[in-house]
Write the structure tokens for this entry.
Amino acid sequence: MSFTMHGLGVSGGIAIGRALLMSHATLDVARLTLTARQAEREIVRLDRALNTVRKELLNMRAQNKSSAVAPGELIAFIDLHMLFLADPELVDATKQIIRERLCNAEWALVQRMEQLVEQFEQVGDPYLRERKYDVMQVVERVVQELLGKSAKAKGGLSDEANRIVVAHDLSPTDAINLKKHHFASFVTDVGGATSHTAILARSMAIPAIVGLVSARAMIRDGEWLIVDGQRGVLIVDPDEQVLDEYRIRKELLELERSKLKRLKSTLSQTLDGIRINLLANIEMPSDMDAVLESGASGIGLYRTEFLFLGRGDLPSEDEQFEAYRTVAKALDGRPAVIRTFDLGGDKMLDLQRTPTNPALGRRAIRLSLVEPKMFHTQLRAILRASHYGKVKILFPMLSHARQIDASLSALAQAKASLSGENIPFNHDIEVGGMIEVPGAALIVQTFLKRLSFLSIGTNDLIQYTLAVDRSDEEVADLYDSLHPAVLTLIAHVLTSGEKAGVPVSVCGEMAGDPKFTRLLLGMGLKDFSMHSSQIMEIKSRIIQADVGEIAPLARRIIKRGETGKVEEAVAKLNSRQAQS
Ligand code: PEP
Ligand code: MG
């Protein structure tokens, strides 16, 4: 039966394909009815899977014994999981279920887990009650092993070129794994417009919708879907007529995109002759092909934390160096701004403890400064890469002067250690800071005195200025890029940078959204950093803009104190271009 669902379109375009249901927990396994002999084989399978997971945990334990990342907590967590893996309450009871009910190992394991979870829920002691999550985690890992490691999605991902992933939620780690496969689109029940998962969809230039509430429950695996990422519309099991209509719209969109590609070698300059730098945001070295294809004038933001996600260990200095050098070399003299890891928040390391409020907790530079060994390793790797191209360093989430000073002294130490070993690097490497905390924007002079460039992260700046979680669809309507408070902060940073002669870029999602191009140009922005797929469209707006004409209008817009009015005024500002 055909039906339509509405959510938050976070990445434009149209996808037509079959649904691929992703189970985040991997725990909705099917029951198979077996013979007694087959059941005995299931017990052998179960023992093997338990052994593999045990070995994995032992390895993790050995590797992290000396790690600086919460070693005590991590080791305790591993030990607890090891205990569960060997606990007869879990293992023997599961085997009994297999034998008595003649079923497959994964199904029996999940049954037993549910019984244990129920028992934990009855316990009065809150600490013990929480242990149900450990049991769930252990069982999930064993079930994954039984199903084959990469079989997180039913049917696997290998043959999924035209599949549309349907999930309750996708963590940035899930999304980065999916990025390695070719699929047409993804849709999720939850998520906000600038959640990192949405950002990844835009970086892959595939349509995506989040906040569909119950898509995962209502859609069946293999069902035909149409995703309209622009409007946030998902059509399930469409009839032939609707399919035809969308096929035509898809072709038209593709035609428009290919026309824009002609702008690749067009100079990025406004009508009144102002040169605008269009830089790219990347998550991994494999993004470089698209960057070179887009004609970007460099990398404005390399989110290095993706190198650290979805693994039980930390990337070594050499592994990081190889990744950074690949990017630096590919740019052939154009700049590469490498941001030190922004872990925490919604990009937690597997080894990290989840804080009460991740967005306000030990995230980005805050984590770097309490993990000096991990930070030192990354700084050395970036410095080493600076010998191979125009590398710059960017520190994320700064709010206090002392954080800037501590980061700079960590950099000085990394430089000294490389010099001591005669390893070449650029001694005059430029160092910048991100402005993504409102407090930082308000004391921007502190930043301008200490750093050689700034980059405004509007995604977080909006989140923190308006106290709206960027990944929560329930408050998405309050996540307002045009809120006068947000615009005032951006304008303050831009004008302060201009006066001090310090370049300021914008690398948040606002830079790649054509709705804001004219406004940002009018506010004086000259360095825009975005996904490579957005560069041509933004360039098409830039070459039609006259900054001299827009600037006074932009100034008036920022002075308007009321939210709705700003939106109206920006729409007017944009329509002036459409008419000219
Ligand atoms: C931002 O906050 O705008 C930004 C670019 O950083 P991230 O999206 O990685 O938090
Ligand atoms: Mg940010």
